[in-house]
Specification:
single chain; 358 residues; alpha/beta; Dihydrodipicolinate Reductase, domain 2; 2 domains; 6-stranded parallel sheet; 6-stranded mixed sheet; 12 helices; 14 strands; 22% strand; globular; Aspartate-semialdehyde dehydrogenase; NADP; EC 1.2.1.11; aspartate-semialdehyde dehydrogenase activity
Length: 358
Amino acid sequence: MKRWNVGIVGATGMVGQRFVTLLADHPWFELTSLAASARSAGKTYTEAVGTRWAMTTPIPEKIASMVVLNASEIDRVCENVDFVFCAVDMKKEEIRALEEAYARHEVPVVSNNSAHRHTPDVPMLMPELNDEHMRVIEAQRKRLGTKKGFIAVKPNCSIQSYVPALHPLMKFGIEKIAVSTYQAISGAGKTFETMPEIVDNVIPFIGGEEEKSEQEPLKIWGTLEGDRIVPALSPVISAHCVRVPVSDGHLATVNVKFTRKPTREEMLEAWASYEGLPQKLNLPHAPKPFMKYMEEDNRPQTGLDRDFEGGMGITIGRLREDNLFDYKFVCLSHNTLRGAAGGAVLTAEMLAAKGWMD
């Protein structure tokens, strides 16, 4: 298999750190460039991260001594890369400008940021669900005036627990969804040491999350029409998003109403048999199976099940009929793996396998 040289823009933050751990020994991708803010530039990666390293494993030895570059010095960052991952902490308008600058430099960008999620010609990819949206890259390249450069983004971490479980059920005509997500502190880039206010507490507000939960699935379920992706008009989604005292893992409770109510057996079969393009292509980070239903009444549990399939799979449980809707169930995903860096790496693998990085 061909190998690609890759960079991380925003390498010192929590998601950037997760990218480092995933790419250190990747079979396709060679990590050749690290970039961050001006205050980190010129330091080794170990020096730049300092005491903020939040992963459970040490900084990979071959990455520790790499010198961090200034993310705004695009020529230097891109000297020896085929594409970059982006996970910067900046204002949205600054992120949009930075990512487009990299793309216009003929370097594809696979972004963990939200800035371009609603740009009509930027695909927001959940690889198992909407791989056909990759084709909008052709229109984006025309707009940007590039031959190779483009931007692709991954969706918000909170929707990655339940949207995959709903997707195989769309054939039954989903009309309404009510969802509550119970989100880990790593989703805010925090640990228990840096977020003491979460201990023995639940915070019932996460800025912007409910809007993302209600809007982003509609783009994923949208259609490619000419030079843009047109979001779906339905189903109607109502979301609550709360922060809970958990290190990693976003759990969701879902209530769903159908046009044609399926049987319980039909729903279980839809989950068990579903696979997407990553599974068919046998991509390095593709979970097999993608989704798993757990029969125990008290599963999935965040602490027990967030690492299913290396943190890239979705676990589902507690399927039962609902008095207001048709059915209700519980879903779980790992927010910094499937929901953030891991999902972006899988997206890059799919883009590379289909020739978009060449």
